[in-house]
Amino acid sequence: MNSIEGSSRRSPLVAGITSKPLYGFEFTIPLHLKRFSPWFHKTPKPIVLGSAAGAAIAADVRMSNVKFMGDTITIAAGQAVRWTNADPIEHTVTFDGAAEPGSPVIPPNGSYVHRFDKPGTYTYHCTPHPFMKGAVVVR
Ligand SMILES: [Cu+2]
């Protein structure tokens, strides 16, 4: 008999349960609950990672809309920069070519502080989002 089942055979196990043809299909929804967590939890507590090591914070960089706002900032040697994550997802501040040790994962509402002692141009990106880029120019 020609049917929508084609030449496929029902397994004897299924045939034993029902003699009716089986319709429909199975599907899986990739539902990542973590992504919805901001809907169910209040704003997480601000945490500060890294250390200014006694230096003044000379510049603030917001991480917002999966971007570093103010992608190039200029400071003097011995000053510190603070990055603050205003997104509901995690970011990092990772220096290209390991010029400086980078940040750990910065959670939503977390910030990272780093002091720059040597003049130079420090380009960086976000490890989970490599298209997020910025630079710190130390004079
Ligand atoms: Cu990121």
Task: Give the helix/strand layout.
Blueprint: H1 12-17, H2 33-40, E1 48-51, E2 57-64, E3 67-69, E4 72-75, E5 79-85, E6 94-95, E7 111-116, E8 120-125, E9 133-138
Parallel strand pairs: 1-7, 2-5, 4-9
Antiparallel strand pairs: 2-3, 5-7, 6-8, 8-9
Residues 66, 91, 126, 128-129, 132 line the site of copper (II) ion.
Q: Can you describe what's shown?
A:
The chain has 139 residues and is mainly beta. It has a domain at 48-138: Immunoglobulin-like (Sandwich). It contains 2 helices and 9 strands; from the N terminus they run ααβββββββββ. The strands form 2 sheets. It has a 5-stranded mixed sheet with strand order 1-7-5-2-3, with no helix packed on it. Strand 8 (120-125) and strand 9 form a beta hairpin. The longest helix has 8 residues, at 33-40. The mean pLDDT is 85. Copper (II) ion is lined by residues 66, 91, 126, 128-129, 132. The site of copper (II) ion (CU) has 6 residues, from loops.
The major beta sheet can be summarized as: 5 strands, mixed
At the fourth level of CATH, the homologous superfamily of the domain at 48-138 is Cupredoxins -  blue copper proteins
The arrangement of helices and strands along the chain is: HHEEEEEEEEE
The parts where pLDDT drops under 50 for at least 5 residues are none
Mean pLDDT over the residues: 85
Counted beta strands: 9
User: What percentage of residues falls in helices of 4 or more residues?
Assistant: 10-25%
Query: What portion of the residues fall into strands of 2 or more residues?
Result: 25-35%
CATH architecture of the domain at 48-138: Sandwich
